[in-house]
Amino acid sequence: MKALYIASTGMGAQERNVEVISNNIANMRTTGYKRQRAEFQDLLYQQITRAGSQTSAEGTMVPAGLEIGSGVRTVATPRVMSQGSVNMTEGELDVAIRGEGFFMIQLPDGRTAYTRDGSFLRDAEGTLVNSSGYELDPGISVPDNARGVSISPDGTVEAYIGTDATPTQLGQLQLARFVNKSGLESMGDNLFLETAASGPAQVSVPNVDGTGDLLQGYLEMANVNSVTEIADLIAAQRAYEMNARVISGADQMMQATSQLS
Predict the structure, then answer these.
(1) Which residue ranges does the record assign to the Flagellar basal-body/hook protein C-terminal domain (predicted)?
(2) For residue 244, what are the contacts with CB-CB under 8 A and spacing of at least 6?
(3) Nearest Cα to 244, choosing from 256, 255, 232, 236?
């Protein structure tokens, strides 16, 4: 009985849906996290009677065909790249992006990764790095005797060196933006990689070409709405239960048929 298989695809799809929702909820406090959503498509159809097929020699046609579907499948889990809330941290090297841009991070293997997580630190040499120790790109070093580090909305990094009365420019932060942000590949550690679907990175200074400006002393929080996620979780659970009921009903029908013989 096909109903068993069809309902099983529905249960599998909702199980995947719950996995996506649970990951969103787990990352509610992850800096710069972007929520995902599951998208579905129906499977192939068995054409028993095609719409428009002739039913007589006079040319009469079937107005509506007879099609039996094969179920559902999960086809994508795109990220919703909307702006998350910006919270004050007062960290001197914490930076939030208000706009579509991404910070660029130099990976040890030479690749460039992209992130919305602006919680930067200084390593032993004074170079700005992320929480995993990967260098910011382009690299910026803060001397040991630097004080009063400031990061302007346009990405200019300045500090007072030693007893200097005027600040010295230490570097310039740059941001990357993509035509299709949802096409970026997640690699964990709050990092994304460029793909053919995302298009090449368009690099510029902040406040140019829609990259957005920067806020020092702030961090962007996850764009996960707890109420929305719980509502989606309940809906997914109910859909899973209904598919399970279909399997139970189909089993009872098969049992009744077997008892006739």
Answers:
(1) 216-260
(2) 7, 11
(3) 236
